[in-house]
């Protein structure tokens, strides 16, 4: 049963998830911040664009620490690679076309709904937010359906 | 920006990025295997992260008056409206196409997966389009 659900084991998934929670929890402990990651992609535009939307105080006030959090994400993944990832092959078989189009929909959709896997998923569920639970149910269902369609038409 | 703020945001992000890498979530193929019901490990990533974060979010405000470095404990507010439904649906389609969501797109640069620049460019572009077409509230 466990083997069929988790053919590649379960411990690395669980430990990784717990570490993510520690990171999100730490930012709450120190600053009281509920940090989702998709807002970074809007707040950072305030450095480049003069559009009023990007200059709302919610983006201007948070753009610096959101940038540092993003730098931290890169550093954390780098530390993992140094410690455990000597054999890690950093490549993907997903085509650049799918990466760009998928990325655009991810960016547009997560910002429209004001949350992604971390914002609605981790932060929203941990805040016991019913609207976020709804968002998670919707994006999971759509992602599962889309991935099955892609596999059906393009192969896995 | 104070040095303490910079340090702890970096540290919080680093735990997050380390966890994303350790769990394999920065590998699009791992995410797509999950979405195709071939490996349910990602449920444990989300479950583990939500478990720990829930403890922090629900217990800390009862234990201490304010965050250690000042300010107040934020509360995440979301409204179940048209934008949330449509946005979540579009996000889900994108995630199902590429197997990458915003956190892993950023973190994957740290392990040298520079193909993720395609996703990052897409996310930035999508966020820009969303911002441009939204009237300032």
Helix content of chain B: 55-70%
Shape of chain A: globular
Inertia-based shape of chain B: globular
Beta-strand fraction estimate of chain B: under 5%
Low-confidence stretches of chain B: none
Number of helices of chain A: 8
Average of the residue pLDDT scores of chain B: 95
How many helices of chain B?
6
Radius of gyration of chain A: 18 Å
Query: Kindly, what is the distance between the CA atoms of the first and last residues of chain A, rounded to a whole number of angstroms?
Result: 24 Å
In the residues of chain B, how many domains can be counted? Answer: 1
DSSP summary, beta strand count of chain B: 0
Order of helices and strands of chain B: HHHHHH
**Helix/strand-derived class of chain B?**
mainly alpha
How large, in whole angstroms, is the Cα Rg of chain B?
17 Å
Low-pLDDT segments of chain A? none
So what's the oligomer here?
Answer: heterodimer
Helix/strand-derived category of chain A reads: mainly alpha
Strand content of chain A: under 5%
Mean pLDDT reading of chain A: 95
Euclidean distance between termini CA atoms of chain B: 27 Å
């Amino acid at each position: 049963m466990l083997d069929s659900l988790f053919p590649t084991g379960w411990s690395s998934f669980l430990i990784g998830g717990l570490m993510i929670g520690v990171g999100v929890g730490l930012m709450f402990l120190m600053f009281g911040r509920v940090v989702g990651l998709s807002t970074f992609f809007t707040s950072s535009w305030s450095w480049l664009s003069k559009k009023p939307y990007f200059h709302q105080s919610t983006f201007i006030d948070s753009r610096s620490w959101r940038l540092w959090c993003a730098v931290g994400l890169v550093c954390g993944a780098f530390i993992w690679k140094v410690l455990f990832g000597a054999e890690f092959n950093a490549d993907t078989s997903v085509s650049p076309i799918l990466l760009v189009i998928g990325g655009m929909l991810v960016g547009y959709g997560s910002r429209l709904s004001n949350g992604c896997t971390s914002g609605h998923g981790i932060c929203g569920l941990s805040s016991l937010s019913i609207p976020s639970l709804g968002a998670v149910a919707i994006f999971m269902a759509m992602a599962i359906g889309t991935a099955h369609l892609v596999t059906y038409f393009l192969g896995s | 920006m104070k040095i303490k703020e910079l340090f702890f945001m970096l540290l919080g992000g680093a735990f997050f990025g380390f966890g994303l890498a350790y769990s394999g979530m920065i590998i699009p193929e791992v995410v797509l295997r999950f979405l195709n019901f071939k490996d349910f490990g990602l449920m444990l990533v989300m479950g583990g992260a939500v478990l720990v974060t829930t403890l922090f979010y629900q217990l800390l405000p009862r234990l201490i008056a304010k965050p250690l470095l000042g300010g107040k404990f934020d509360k995440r507010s979301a409204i179940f409206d048209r934008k949330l439904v449509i946005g979540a649906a579009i996000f889900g389609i994108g995630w199902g196409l590429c197997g990458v969501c915003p956190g892993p797109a950023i973190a994957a640069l740290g392990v040298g997966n520079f193909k993720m620049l395609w996703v990052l460019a897409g996310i930035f572009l999508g966020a820009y389009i969303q911002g441009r077409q939204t009237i300032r509230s």
